[in-house]
Specification:
The structure is a homodimer. By secondary structure, the first copy, chain A, is α/β, with parallel strands linked by helices. In chain A, 37% of the residues lie in helices and 20% in strands. The first copy, chain A, contains 10 helices and 12 strands. A 5-stranded mixed beta sheet of chain A has the order 3-2-1-4-7, sandwiched between helices. Chain A has a 5-stranded mixed beta sheet with strand order 10-9-8-11-12, sandwiched between helices. Chain A has a two-stranded antiparallel sheet with strand order 5-6. Chains A and B meet through helix 8 of A and helix 8 of B.
């Protein structure tokens, strides 16, 4: 048996996992992300933690099939991050090569964190059993990962699946963080749903439990929907219209078998899909509208599963 | 040296090509498409023509690396056409298997015609030298083909790259042929450009050479643009806004290196790109906006080149 390490580098912590070569999780742990000095210590810290774990478990280099790493930025198929990683303090660097220097003799695979999470959901989560999967992460922003024929799609500059910034509304006047306006992220992220709710509440005085919500966030909206709140339902419908339309466009381009919806917003559960699927079916080109929908299952572990899976694929 | 046949099955004629194994065209010819009796004779006719050519040239089965076939309908990666091909009179059939029966012992590869044309442009046309190519065909409709990592993307039901029916306008009231409204095809196809021109001319009485055009088609619009006609320029700008926005969305999803624009509309030449590229750059997510643009080069031969290329790839 060989071992595989999965490393999901986030802005606050690095999630790490030790797997066997059937992509079964043996142990997981976290180390803090040290962003001081432009994040220079992160890679040595990660590799040091892997070496420690190998020592602790008596695992030799020959026993390691490889290390997979995911990072929050575009990563091309050679491991280069041409735009660095803003949330880690990194400028442009080659993640794969830097890890190879720290872990000589061990195979390193590197990819974007949203993409590896998508891959994790395909091998062990909501997309298990499928080879053509689009994973959509509805968190603070909207991210995505595309797997075609069982392989992660990186794109020519590592930015494939960056679906949060697809333009879905030409009339939008408020700016997205990216500087454009009308991006999917402005309607379908946690932040976007809260924004839609604020705008809806300001429109008139219609009674709604959302008016007395402690925090007007995506969770409050979907909780109110489940209790039959009409205003919250209007907000959810608007969210579903944008996301369903956006996913229909993606289906027309890459024609996946299944969409796997994850991220904090997906904790609302199946009710979420009830607002997205009808709009998807109404908008997608007929040969593409048979795509299935599922919720993500691995939560924060999707990244380490995907990293390990990349090494083994 | 081995030989390869490329077969591009169209609604009126079947374009056929004999290539060497460096994908160099040795000879090309056409046979009529016999659509009588639900198009049952098309496959025997095509295979008969291949056998005749083999006899004429003294080519044995062992000398043939394979036959690639493109057909106007969705084709999955097993050669199945679940929706048949309306323009050929075909119901659901397996193109690859039917050709294998007629040409025993010869490798057959089958794909959608727009996809193989895209592949042809990658190996020998406007996308030569690139591995991540989105080819866009602006003809009567809008078609597309996506090549990632040098491989054609079929999609789970053979409908990847069906970009003509991406929704690009929520306000559209006129229906597209597909039954939806606001499809890219309604603005960026030859038919779509003529429609935009008719609508613009009806709006007011502003002088324009288009008012006296013999045929108000895409060619007339771009000819007038080249002569500085203001109304035609407005129409071209509207076309460019829709197509540029649509291609930006595609770039956000698959992050290609280059877009190759073909089809009848592309005969307008480089002036076309002047209306599309600025809108693309304004709309695409920054890491995706570096994609290049080129015009298709192979014209009607793109399909046979792509068919031959598929066999050899």
């Amino acid at each position: 048996m060989k071992y595989v390490f999965g490393v999901d580098i986030g802005g606050t912590t690095v999630k790490m996992g030790l797997f066997n070569d059937a992509t079964e999780l043996i142990e997981k742990w976290e180390i803090p992300t040290d962003k001081t000095d432009s994040g220079k210590k992160i890679i040595p810290d990660v590799c040091g933690s892997i070496k420690n774990k190998m020592g602790e478990k008596g695992i030799s280099e020959e026993d390691v099939a490889g290390v997979g790493a995911g990072a929050p930025g575009a990563v091309d198929d050679k491991g280069m991050m041409p735009g660095g990683a803003v949330n880690l303090g990194w400028g442009p660097l080659n993640l794969k090569e830097l890890m190879e220097k720290e872990l000589p003799g061990i195979k390193i695979v590197a990819a974007n964190d949203a993409n590896v999470a998508a891959f994790g959901e395909m091998i062990a989560g909501g997309g298990k059993g499928y080879e053509n999967v689009v994973a959509v992460t509805l968190g603070t922003g909207v991210g995505g990962g595309i797997i075609l024929g069982g392989k992660l799609l990186a794109g020519s500059t590592g930015a494939a699946g960056e679906i949060g910034h697809m333009k879905v509304d030409d009339e939008e006047t408020e700016k997205c963080n990216c500087g454009h306006a009308g991006c999917l992220e402005q309607y379908a992220s946690a932040t976007g749903i809260a924004r839609l709710a604020r705008k809806r509440l300001a429109k008139d005085d219609k009674a709604s439990s959302l008016r007395s919500a402690e925090t007007l966030d995506a969770k409050a909206v979907f909780d109110a929907v489940k209790e039959g709140d009409e205003v919250a339902t209007e907000v959810a419908k608007e969210f579903g219209r944008y996301l369903g339309k956006g996913l229909a466009t993606i289906a027309d381009v890459v024609n996946p078998e299944i969409f796997v919806i994850g991220g904090g917003v997906s904790k609302a559960g199946d009710v979420l899909l009830e607002f997205v699927e009808p709009e998807f079916v109404n908008t997608a080109f007929p040969p593409c509208k048979g795509a299935k929908f599922a919720l993500a299952k691995l939560g924060n572990d999707a990244g380490i599963y995907g990293c390990a899976g990349m090494v083994l694929s």
